[in-house]
Write a structure and sequence with these properties.
Rossmann fold, five-stranded parallel β-sheet, glycosyltransferase activity, Glycosyltransferase involved in cell wall biosynthesis, alpha/beta, Glyco_trans_1, globular, Glycosyltransferase_grp1, single chain, 2 domains, transferase, four-stranded parallel β-sheet, 336 residues
Length: 336
């Protein structure tokens, strides 16, 4: 998504640069580590401000500040230079103001307070931003988008496999893989194949989850863009439950390729899916199994839903639409 934003800003007529490579993330809730990173950030400010003046920076844009990785430099630099400060996909988490991430959560809140414009990607994020927004802040909806202005030309695959695409790491991603495995156990027939695109430190655990299904499951590994596009093109549908996904970029790619999606009706995820039938979390794997089976057994239904998915992406989630939204936000703070 960050690369997509850089491309969109370029298409909007700007020349974005990576101003700093400071990595502020603390994934473990270590107060000492947070303080060390805050100290590093403060030490980096003078050089950034000097560089900004010399290079004539016109605005500072930060992507995805949140309680585990707050923007510790954008606001102060923007204030020192007298330029607008814009945030994209910022999140607020008041419940984190106590506990192991308290320092970083406070810093993330302070960064949000300093922003002139906040682009939100989902309604879930917008709610907290609106509740805490300052009167002078502009809040603008920027739907997640693909890095292209035309849809891929992909053929319809009448007998393709199920496709799952996701990183293999502990936590939410592994939870989605667990749901996939539980769903496959409840499929009414064995007339299915699954291809999995992705890799990561939890690959062994994912492989163990899929071991009972033998050669019905194929691991494709981490794929480059062209190979992933080929996987979409030969698939019958995308199956990814979406446990705690902010929205899920894979859903955009799959629908653009004309694939119907089987996912759970979760906040964030539902905002990038074409209108359709998506089982709730409480319905469990059995509902997902029924939905996957329904699509696999009905070629006409898959074709209709695939076309609807493509049309939905074309209307709401393409590059040129995002360029227009970014231009509008920047123009509101005098950056033309």
């Amino acid at each position: 998504m960050a690369r997509a934003l850089i491309l969109a800003l370029e298409h909007a007529g700007h020349s974005p640069i990576i101003a700093s490579t400071l990595r502020s993330r603390d994934g473990k809730g270590n107060a000492q580590r947070q303080q060390e990173i805050i100290t590093q950030a403060k030490a980096a400010l003078p050089d950034l401000i000097t560089r900004g003046r010399a290079e004539g920076w016109r605005a500072w844009v930060t992507y995805h500040t949140y309680y585990k990785a707050p923007d510790l430099i954008g606001g102060p630099v923007a204030q020192a230079l007298g330029i607008p400060y814009l945030q994209i996909e910022a999140t607020r988490a008041a419940k984190r103001l106590t506990g192991p991430w308290a320092q970083f959560a406070k810093a993330a809140e302070q960064a949000c307070d300093m922003a002139d414009v906040m682009f939100y990607l989902t309604a879930r994020d917008a709610q907290a931003l609106r509740e805490n927004a300052l009167p002078t802040q502009e809040l603008i909806h920027l739907p997640p988008f693909l890095t292209r202005d035309t849809l891929p030309d992909t053929p319809f695959s009448p007998n393709g496999p199920i496709l799952s695409v996701g990183m293999m790491r502990e936590g939410d991603k592994l939870a989605s893989y667990q749901i996939i495995a539980e769903t496959l156990k409840q499929m009414p027939t064995d007339a299915w194949r699954l291809e999995i695109a992705g890799d990561g430190p939890a690959r062994a655990k994912v492989a163990a989850l899929m071991a009972p299904f033998g050669d019905k499951v194929t691991f494709l590994g981490e794929l480059k863009d062209a190979d992933l596009s080929a996987a979409y093109a030969r698939a019958a549908l995308l199956f990814w439950p979406g446990v705690n996904e902010a929205f899920g970029y894979v859903y955009l790619e799959a629908q653009a390729a004309g694939l119907p999606v089987v996912a759970q009706n979760r906040p964030g995820v539902c905002e990038v899916l074409a209108p359709g039938q998506y089982p709730s979390e409480s319905d469990g794997p059995s509902a997902l199994a029924s939905r996957v089976s329904e699509l696999l057994n009905d070629t006409d239904l898959r074709r209709v839903e695939g076309r609807a998915a493509r049309a939905y992406i074309a209307k709401h989630h393409m590059l040129l639409a995002a360029v227009a939204v970014l231009k509008d936000g920047l123009s509101r703070v005098g950056v033309l």
